[in-house]
Amino acid sequence: MKPRIALAPTLIALVLAVPATAQAASLTVDRACYGLGDRIGLAGSGFTPNGPVALSADGQQLGIGTVDGTGSFTFGEPAPVVESGQRFRTYTATDQTNIALTASARARISALKVTVKPLQGRPAAKRRIKARGFTHGKTLWAHVKRGNKNRNLKIGKVKGACGTLSVKKRLFKPDAATGIYEMRFDTKRKYSTTASQQYLFLFTVFPVFRPASASTLGVAEPFGRAG
Q1: Are 40 and 141 members of one domain?
Q2: What is the rounded distance in angstroms from the CA atom of residue 204 to the CA atom of residue 178?
Q3: Contact 185, 198 (CB under 8 A)
Q4: 192 closest CA partner among 158, 164, 226
Q5: Does residue 1 lie in a domain region?
Q6: What is the SS3 assignment for 139?
Q7: Is 127 in the same domain as 221?
């Protein structure tokens, strides 16, 4: 297990690392995609043994520290919050003894997002559900809660490193009672308010006094990230 770097504003503290075998400097990230609550892990090797190395992110210096006797280090920091889509954060490590020894790595970070369309109409209608950023777990669930009653609905498998999904699904029964429904999307099989990656909606089922429909669905603006 490699040592970790603890960053202060101007200092990186290192402990012993596994010996590096590469002749050139390298820097790698430990995951293909990071989501809400994930920690970005970096591993560097091939630097001047016991020498200083500067680490930056997107051009902003994070600190300077001394690598171990094999020229290796590790570092970790929380993934920044992304509001929509995805973004890349570029890390660069530069040897301060021999500035020709430099290496970079890009971390891909995804927003946590769920969209449901249409948001209005018959409760039992199929709706297009799109999700991204669910990097914990393999299956997306919707937990539909009204009062003390809760229903756990399997939405589908999330795909790819950034946990994406697009599927049509019925979220409400045809005879859904009027009232306000809380709906939490996450990768837990059972209802929870503590999931680290969770997206929350509040739906309202309204009565409609027409022969063709007993009720209709409306929704307030989604509350977004929850948990």
Answers
A1: no
A2: 7
A3: yes
A4: 226
A5: no
A6: strand
A7: yes
Verify that 166 and 179 share a domain, yes or no.
yes
Structural domain range at position 134: 113-226
What are 181's two structure tokens?
């429904």
What pLDDT, on the 0 to 100 scale, is given for residue 43?
98
If pLDDT is split at 50, 70 and 90, which confidence band does 32 have?
A: very high
Residue (of 15, 16, 76, 67) closest to 46 by Cα position: 67
* Per-position DSSP letters for 164-200, written without gaps between them: BEEEEEE-S-TTPPSEEEEEEEES-SS--S--SSEEE
pLDDT score at 209: 63
Asked whether the beta carbons of 197 and 180 are under 8 A apart, the reply is no
Same domain membership, residue 86 and residue 177: no
CATH number at residue 57: 2.60.40.1930
Q: Answer whether residue 80 shows pLDDT above 80.
A: yes
**What 3-state DSSP class applies to 151?**
strand
Euclidean distance between CA atoms 75 and 5, whole angstroms: 5
> Which amino acid appears at position 156 of this protein?
G
57 with 127, same domain?
no
Q: What is the number of structural domains in the chain?
A: 2
| CA atoms of 115 and 131, how far apart (whole Å) | 7
Which residue shows structure tokens 């209802």? Answer: 191
Q: What b/e sequence results for 176-203 when a residue is b if at least 16 CB atoms lie within 10 Å of its CB, and e otherwise?
A: beeeebbbbbbbbeebeeebebbbbbeb
Q: Looking at the chain, how many residues does it have?
A: 227
